[in-house]
């Protein structure tokens, strides 16, 4: 493709920038990493066989933001797909409409035990299961990424704002084109960190480029899931189809833009571009946590409701054993602050997380650190996260230990099977 054609595609993406549809390829990478991190078995076999639907589900929640530029209600449709109550209704729908029964019937009762005969699983159920798991991964990784990676990027002062760079990257453009283009760049979410890392991800990992064509499950099934979750929204087949169409369009636009944009991102955001995959909240850490969430959803889909799998802690910030940690006292916005976080495999009961003694931080002398515990990240209900907003600074070069007790319960009232603790050491003075 010639540079002018790529520039045209990039301008198309810029024109859609106001819908804030960013991070799509990165979400797909996290969902796919979670699939790959699973142990061999029926779930991994299904998600691998229906990987195009898994990736579609991981991207779809942002597709509705795209169509929301045309139909305002589609933005609400997209937002609802991000949260745990939507996932819960989705899994319950799969149980009630026979997909969990299909899975149980297809799991081999002879060696190799635990594997599945895909010939006994319909494409409809395979697509729906993979899409539901990918969709859940999107909402979960929005929490891990935004709580850990993005605050670190902002702290380092890196931004994808491209106004200063357009003239260097495309010097042949006349001022009559260059000046309006600078204004477009500076005024849209093309300056979003997630979009910037998508450009690097696509150029380096090529997941979206190499993946099979996205596969969406039957529209009628998705309409019913939305109806069960929030009937007052009135999401219909046309809205689903618009969201699916924009999902495909925006993925293609990002894929075309990436070869041109990746240079700009590496110049402006060297730390982020080099670390988005392995830094806290990045693809690897979030992907391993996604695998833990997949196991929880698998039990919700195929397990005995009378013997539910307890929720588990599947990630924390800082990670256990982390060194040179910097955590900051409370600011106005958690998206710009590095706070203590814990992530769970299930949507949690926020009231249980905020009970005294559920989530605590202690110094190396056993003194409890003052702070405010808040359930959730972007929203309190049906979230997978809890955060501690410090009310006092941490001492440099000291070991701290965080504890989550069995007071923590999920939305069903099921408690953690055992307490969880992790320790870290704060940064020494410069």
Notes on the structure:
The protein has 430 residues and is of the alpha+beta class. The protein folds into 2 domains: 3-275, no CATH class; 311-426, Immunoglobulin-like (Sandwich), CATH 2.60.40.3710. The chain has helices at residues 3-15, 24-37, 42-49, 51-67, 73-80, 84-96, 99-106, 123-155, 166-169, 175-187, 193-205, 207-210, 219-229, 237-268, 270-275, 283-302, 350-353; strands at 313-317, 322-325, 340-344, 359-362, 371-375, 385-390, 399-404, 420-426. The chain has a 4-stranded antiparallel beta sheet. The protein has a 4-stranded mixed beta sheet with strand order 2-8-7-4, with no helix packed on it. Helix 11 packs across helix 14 (237-268). It is globular. Mean pLDDT is 87; it is low at 1-22.
Keywords:
disordered N terminus, 430 residues, 4-stranded antiparallel β-sheet, alpha+beta, 2 domains
